[in-house]
Amino acid sequence: MAKQQLQPGTSESGVLQQLRGKHVLITGTTGFLGKVVLEKLIRTVPDIGGIHLLIRGNKRYPGARERFDNEIASSSVFNRLRQDDNEAFENFLEERVHCITGEVTEPHFGLTPERFRSLAGQMDAFINSAASVNFREELDKALKINTLCLENVAALAKLNSTMAVIQVSTCYVNGKNSGQVTESVIKPAGEAIPRSTDGYYEIDELVHLLQDKVADVRSRYSGKMLEKKLVDLGIREANLYGWSDTYTFTKWLGEQLLMKALSGRSLTIVRPAIIESALEEPSPGWIEGVKVADAIILAYARGKVSLFPGKRSGIIDVIPVDLVANSIILSLAETIAEPGQRRIYQCCSGSSNPISLGEFIDHLMAEAKSSYADYDQLFYRKPTKPFIAVNRKLFDVVVGGMRLPLSIAGKALRLAGQNRELKVLKNLDTTRSLATIFGFYTAPDYTFRNDRLMALASRMGELDRVLFPVDARQIDWQLYLRKIHLGGLNRYALNERKLYSLRAAQPRKKAA
Ligand SMILES: NC(=O)c1ccc[n+]([C@@H]2O[C@H](COP(=O)([O-])OP(=O)(O)OC[C@H]3O[C@@H](n4cnc5c(N)ncnc54)[C@H](OP(=O)(O)O)[C@@H]3O)[C@@H](O)[C@H]2O)c1
């Protein structure tokens, strides 16, 4: 396939040149990362041919465009664009952003075969950011969105030999492997899975086995019990093959499926580590929702958690969302310019600017102590207890040991007619459930490497390094964690969450 020049010269951006006039289809733009990618493309690549968004309808907004208008275009992620030139922004949305009502998990995305074919013909690239990021998703649901939907993505790409596919994966497909994790195909840390001569793993038989197990569970249970059994099945199977949870297991399966289906075609897998608030763009601290580490920060701020399983010396790999969006855009330009190759990039901080879990906790503690009042949505009062990370065994002994007498005390209170739950018991249960979900991530035994992403950034040249920075060495952890991230959580994640729930609580007008 024709190879174009990636870096045209120092005075022009290779990315802008490659994306000029191009049409890009994106999934996942109702989510956190997808919005930041969309905003950056609109703001920085004004000459792009078209941005096409595959959005599924929901109860409130069955059509993609109305869901886009109400749930995406209204987001604070676009505040900067609106402030700069609202009219130009609205015109761009009108002329260059196209919304397609469809479901990535359905064959042909739920479109007619003709529409699917014509969509394939129109697109130069596809960025797939849709996923279920629920670590403990029911196995069948996780398989559908994180693995099997990639058959539909591959089907689209196969209709257009020049289409560049960017699959957003995660560094945590590494599973329970320890040590240095390079930007390459990951070998499962558990039960063996056959490997092809092309390097990826042959998962067809395994997927059928998992589907049989899902069918068996479905035939025996129903309702809430069925949900629980499907969650348990996912975790059990993930553990067997070497992953801590269903999310990362099914994302790894998805990588294998795509590598096989798009062998010899243009595929780039971009694996971010834990994505957190923006370092700079669209504004420092911008974040949507309460993400992985933030669920623990929030529980601590509300006085619910003070002891957690974790390894203080382990490197906790956090990467700001804007650096991830930039990595996706850089690799998009490269995949278009130099087609027909399979590439893997990791956007992470662990190898180039490591921060240990202990340092991470200490920065947040220090800020909580000195400036809790600046974060009114996060802290309702000054935190009185420290946040202590202990090893898993000690955690289980302490928490297990405390739970029994507390639950006996709770039962005794109820017998005595006091129908109230013990707060300390409730907090202990919050701690235990957060530890079950996130405990693996706070005891890291691996370091993600990003040498190839760094090499890509240097190949792109000076201008693109400035326009699309991806280098985690620019993060000043103290400033980022204490001021930018906590500020962002307070200003965006928690404030907007409150606004949404207030809006949802308002009575809806009856149709006339
Ligand atoms: N957040 C992180 O820390 C992190 C870290 C590493 C990698 N990643 C990867 O980054 C990508 C984006 O993550 P995110 O944090 O932006 O997630 P997010 O905020 O939860 O957004 C998920 C997106 O996926 C879509 N989606 C979920 N289930 C779907 C289904 N069954 N059918 C169609 N669409 C579905 C959602 O659409 P609806 O609104 O219609 O549900 C939404 O647009 C994912 O591929 C994830 O694996 C995330």
What's the end-to-end separation, in Å? Answer: 59 Å
| CATH architecture identity of the largest domain | 3-Layer(aba) Sandwich
The largest sheet is: 7 strands, parallel
The gyration radius over C-alpha positions equals 23 Å
Report the count of strand segments. Answer: 13
The CATH fourth-level homologous superfamily of the largest domain: NAD(P)-binding Rossmann-like Domain
Explain what this protein looks like in three dimensions.
- The chain has 512 residues and is an alpha/beta fold.
- The chain has two domains: 1-273 and 317-350 and 449-475, Rossmann fold (3-Layer(aba) Sandwich); 285-316 and 352-447 and 476-512, no CATH class.
- It has helices at 14-19, 32-44, 64-72, 79-96, 113-122, 139-158, 204-220, 223-241, 246-261, 292-301, 321-337, 357-371, 392-415, 423-438, 451-460, 462-467, 477-505; strands spanning 23-27, 50-55, 97-101, 125-128, 164-168, 179-181, 267-272, 274-276, 307-309, 318-320, 342-347, 388-390, 446-448.
- The strands form four sheets. A seven-stranded parallel sheet has the order 3-2-1-4-5-7-11, sandwiched between helices.
- Mean pLDDT is 92; it is low at 504-512.
- Residues 28, 30-34, 56, 103-105, 129-133, 145, 168, 170, 251, 272, 274-275, 291-292 line the site of NADP nicotinamide-adenine-dinucleotide phosphate.
